Every structure is written in C-alpha cells, then in structure tokens.
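Re: that chain you flagged

S.,

Sorry for the slow reply, it's been a week of failed gels. I finally had a moment to sit down with the sequence you sent. For the record, here it is as I used it:
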Amino acid sequence: MSLPTSFSRFSALAGAAVLITSLAACGSANSSDTQSDAGASGASAGESASLSGNLAGAGASSQEAAMEAWKAGFAAVQPDVAVSYDAVGSGAGITQFADSQVLWAGSDAPLEGEEIEAARARCASPAWALPVYISPVAVIFNLEGVDALNLDAATIAKIFTGEIAKWNDPAIVASNPGVELPDLAITPVHRSDKSGTTENFTDYLHEAAPEAWAYDPAKEWPIEGGESGDKTAGVVQAVTEGEGTIGYADASQAGDLGTVALGAADGTFVSFSNETAAAAADTASPVEGREANDIALKVNRVPATNNAYPLVLVSYSIVCSAYADANEAALVKAFVGYQVSEEGQRMAADNAGSAPLSAAMTAKVRAALDAIR
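Prediction finished late last night. Pasting the structure tokens below so you have them in one place:
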C-alpha cells in the first residue's frame, strides 16, 4: 500500500528555504500582485502600504514550515514589518500570548478552560481562534521493510497504552494481510511538551475508540512514562532513530517514515491527503458556546466512509478581538489576512502540504479580522 500522491512527503522546511530564496530574487517584481492579493483577503496588508513594526508570535510547531513561507511572502508585501515566530508548541505559545510576550499565538487547538480567561485578561477583551492551517496528523512508524499499514483507532489506542506490545500482534496482522510483521517490541513515542497536536491525537482516540482509550482529550500526554520527544521535530527524530517505534506528527514532517491509514466506520481504511484532510475539515462543526468570531471547530473523528481522514488538525492564529495599540492591531490583521489569502494558502500547501481553507471558512476569518479593533 502506498501513500496518495496528492500529499507531498518531502522536507517541508527545505521547501520553505527554496521559496524564500525565490521570493528574494523576484519579490520586488511580484510585490504589487502580492499586495493586491493580500488586500483582497479583507485584511489591511494590501491597503496599508506604510505598515511597520515588530510582529512577534509563538506557538504550534506544526505551523513551522508554513510559517517560513508566510513570513517570506508577507515580507514582499510589507518589507518594513519584522515578523518572528517561535515554534515552541501550542501550549507554550498560548502562555506567551496570555503573558503579553507576543501579539498572537499559533495553536493546533482552540483556547479552553483557564486559557480562555487568561487570554481575555491579557486582551481586556475576548480572544478569538481563527483557522489558518489544515493538516493531517500522521501516525508515523519505523519498521524495516514496511512503509504503510492499516490500523483502526482501537488498535492504535492499545498500542499507545501498552496493551498491544508487539508488531506481530493478531490485531495488527488482521488488518494488514500480506505484510510481514516482525516479532519486535513496539516503542510508542509521544510529545513531551504541551501540544495541540497531542490534543488532536487524544481527541481522535477518545472519540473513535472510547472502549480502548480511557482518557479525555488534552494538550498534555495523559500517561506517565514512556519515550517522548520535544515538539514535532523531537517526536519525528525519536521515531526515526528508533527501531519498532511509532508516534504522531504533522503529516508535513513525516518524511520517509512509514505512515498509517486509519479505519473508517464502513470497515475500510483512509490514507491522508490534501483531499481527505479537506473533506474532514468541511464536516467539522462549531464548538458550542463561542462568540461568532471565535471560529473554534470540532472535527468529526468517526467518518462514515473512507473519503475523510479523521485525524486532521485545524491550526489557528489566536488573536485579541481588541488591541490597546492601533498599530499592533493593524499588524496582526495584515499578517493573519495574508495567512488566509489565496496566495498564503497556496504557499502553505506548497511548502507544508496543508489543505487549503474553503471559501466559506476564509470568508468567516475575513469577517472576524474586520471586527478586530
């Protein structure tokens, strides 16, 4: 079984570096076109040619490859704005945002619980989650001679709880006829930091395999002990350097590792691709109890058929609905507007393999940006 060709499995950060080089070479030639595109996004990037200042953000490491592309593209539109982003993980980014260290945070999950109140206190107004990036979370593994497997949610849950400990366990063999699976110990690897990717992964197990996964969705890994890695890169490194390892990471960073097709309700399996990720995002529902411009989404983790990949993350830019400084508000609106612009989404797709936002979702984000004061 091979991966769908519609999802590029390459070094996303290297691709971003190539993009930056090409933009540097032709940025001035394309500046007017890019500026027009950003202005059409409903944000102020194309309309305010004189924007300047420092725009610091922090958060989700899943966005890192896309962020390099966004920063490069935005520099062609607003050369006097210095954008920085520290890919410290969703939890740490939200903490920095709440502590007023950064103007916005990248997060693979919307604010929840105490985070909502901490962000409200920081902003002196509600904070909003604005979708900017849609990507599958790949279940990655390192098993010699095997590059793809079928696993249902219950089997994955039992692997990560330790109930299934060998690669030739009957549950794995049953869904992978013809695959030679060794009598080798499985080593699960989880995120050591507070992570929105972990929250998406545990939400998937919680919703799709409640009989095998007894834990609530959370940014922090709920089981003590075991092997772990810091941020996306740490998990990928641990899986790559191990033997018989398995983990989870933004699919853009899966590289040459083996990946898992997930079970659907009809008994078939679905691999990740731009198309299957977008289909899953399109069926997401609004999180109850949120303001109209707080676009927090709940993904359906149990698709009826194999045309939607259920382990998808919607990554957000967490912003204040009001900023005390008008220039800070203008910078945030311009940059997030660029993220969701047609060009920004194309850059994220080319350099991080993400699925583009739908037109309807983009319109909602633009309306929210227009409402920021």
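What I noticed first: Residues 1-47 have pLDDT under 50 and may be disordered.

Talk soon,
D.
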